[in-house]
Design a protein that fits this description.
It contains 8 helices and 8 strands, in the order E-E-H-E-H-H-H-H-H-E-E-H-E-H-E-E. It is an alpha+beta fold and about 220 residues long. A hairpin with a 2-residue loop joins strand 4 and strand 5.
Length: about 220
């Protein structure tokens, strides 16, 4: 969580507050996010109280400006030209993405979201919190081919037979191949995907990356 606020004693002065107890990567992204509010939104309001819930809020105006600040931070901390160079001609897995995250000094989650926005591959990123889906990001190719994860009710839980649903597997950074239809109901039975899994220290939060085989766009 971070905050950007104007000094009530001097309207020209702004300050950024952030949680010094979180990881340095989280601190860097929070500061960059608040700087994004300063550059993009300081004429709208004198104070911004930000947390991850705001990004996925149902309130359109809040969601839009929070995602704009996130995009600003991503562009600042993970320049697109460098990312394209570093992922070019590589077999992508969590090890490669983790190494790039370290080079950028950002979290694996932030780097994966950035990767999803840049890759030409069919890719889906899912973040789970206490066994339920918190968000899903799909690459442009995944959207054009209508690849989306199976919904098994609300809130969404991982499907049986996936690594995400297997509590005995905490990490799978190299990837496991399986039928794409296990995850994505509209995929043909012959299509495959690679599932990657990263569990955070508490074990309650899980990051899933799905890399699907190439397919033609659907109308």
């Amino acid at each position: 969580k971070g905050m950007l606020a104007r000094d009530p004693g001097d309207p020209e002065v702004w300050g950024i507050a952030y949680n010094g107890a979180v990881s340095p990567e989280r601190q860097r992204f929070t500061i960059a996010h608040e700087l994004g509010h300063f550059v993009l939104h300081r004429d709208r309001q004198p104070r911004f109280n930000c947390d991850k819930e705001s990004v996925y809020s149902g309130i359109d105006t809040i969601r839009v400006i929070e995602r704009e600040a996130d995009d600003f931070a991503s562009n600042l901390l993970m320049p697109g030209d460098l990312l394209r160079d570093w992922i070019a001609n590589q077999r992508i897995d969590f090890r490669v993405l983790g190494d790039i995250a370290q080079r950028f000094q950002v979290s694996l989650e932030a780097l994966c979201i950035r990767y999803i926005k840049f890759t030409t591959e069919r890719a889906i990123l899912v973040y789970w919190d206490n066994g339920y889906m918190k968000y899903e990001w799909r690459s442009g190719s995944a959207r054009r081919t209508r690849a989306r994860i199976r919904r098994n009710g609300e809130p969404v839980e991982p499907m049986p037979g996936t690594l995400a649903a297997d509590a005995s597997i905490a990490q799978e950074w190299d990837g496991t191949e399986m039928s794409a239809a296990i995850w994505c109901p509209e995929e043909a039975s012959h299509m495959k995907l690679q599932e990657f899994k990263h569990s955070y220290t508490s074990g309650e939060r899980v990051l899933t990356l799905l890399l699907l085989e190439t397919a033609e766009p659907r109308s």
